[in-house]
Amino acid sequence: MNVSTSISAQTQSRKAEHIRICLEEDVQCHEITSGLERYRFSHSCLPELDRNDIDISTNFLGKHLGAPLLISSMTGGTEEAGIINRRLAEVAQEYKIAMGVGSQRVAVEKPQVAETFAVRKYAPDVLLLANLGAVQLNYKYGLAECLRVIEILEADALILHLNPLQECIQTKGDTNFRGLLDKICILCNELPVPVIVKEVGNGISAVMAEKLLAAGVKAIDVAGAGGTSWAKVESERADNALQRRLGKTFADWGLPTADCITAIRAIAPDVPLIASGGLRHGLDVAKAIALGANIAGLAMPFLQAAALSEAAVKDLVEVLIAEITTVLFCTGNATLEQLKLSGSLQRIQY
C-alpha cells in the first residue's frame, strides 16, 4: 500500500467513525451553550394575520429558498454516508432548502467514493455547497483540488472550513495554519463560485470575519459553540491518553453562536450570514434570523433523521417549518424581514 492509498483509507475510516460517534456517543457541549436561550420573543396575542399568508421563503447567494434552512455540512466518503446524503438531497429538493456536504478531501484522495457526494442529480434546483478544510491549502491542495470538489457536487459555492481545535485533538492532525488567509484570498479571486468560510463548532469572531471578508470571502457561517463538540468527537477516536485528555479539556471551548451572529452583523451589515452551532429546532432558527442571520444551519438533527429514513428527514423539515411559521404568527410578522425589523426578540435580563 503506497502512502497516498494509506492516507485516503485513514480519511475514509475517520468519516465512518465520525458518523458512529455522533450518533451513538454524548458529544454535545454541556458547559457552553449557543447563547440563544438568553433571548425571548415578545408574544403578540392579536397578530392581525392569517397564518396561511405567512411567507418564510428567502434568497441566499442568488438562490431562492423555500425556508431559511441549511442542511449543514456533515458527511460523505462511505457507503452509509452516500445513503445519508441522498436522503438529505431529495428532501432538500422537495422543500427547496440549502444543503452542504462534509469535507470532500476523501473524494480527492479516493476518487471512487466521489459518488457519495454527487447529489446534484437528486437536488437539481437547490443551493448546494461543496466543502474542503482550509488547512489543506498548506498540505499541497490548491485551485485544482477546489475546482474538483466543486465539479463533483456541481456546487453553487465552496465552503472552506476552519477547524484548528479539532486538528489539535485529532491524532496526527494537520496543524499548520500559517499563511492561510493569503491563500484563501487567492482562491476567492480565482474560483468561479463564491467562497464561504465556516468554523466547525467553535465560532468566528467579528475581528476574524472582518479579515476574511477583506480577503474576498462572500459569506460567513459562524458555526458557534453550543452544539456538537468536535473536541469530544476526536477524543472518542483518540488512540493515546494525551489526545483523549485534550479533547475533554477543550470540550466546551468556543464562542457562543448568538454572540458570533450579533458581533459579525454589527461590523458587516450586509454580508450573507449563516447561523449554525447548537440550533436544534425552529425556535432557535427564528431567534438566529431575528438576531441578524440570513439562514440557519442544523447538522445533528438532520444526521439523526437521515440515519433513519428519508421520511424522518421530511418529518423534521415539516416540524422546523411549522415552528418558524408559528414564531412569525405569534409575533405578528408575515415575513422573515419583518421579523428582523420588529424588535420582538429581546435579551432576557437576569
TrEMBL record:
| Name under which the protein is recorded | Isopentenyl-diphosphate delta-isomerase
Supply the SUPFAM superfamilies for this chain: FMN-linked oxidoreductases (SSF51395)
Species name for this entry?
Tolypothrix tenuis PCC 7101
User: What subcellular locations does the record give?
Assistant: Cytoplasm
Q: Which GO terms describe its biological process?
A: isoprenoid biosynthetic process
Task: Tell me which InterPro entries the record gives.
Answer: Aldolase_TIM, FMN-dep_DH, IPdP_isomerase
Enzyme Commission designation: 5.3.3.2
SMART domains reported for this sequence: IMPDH (SM01240)
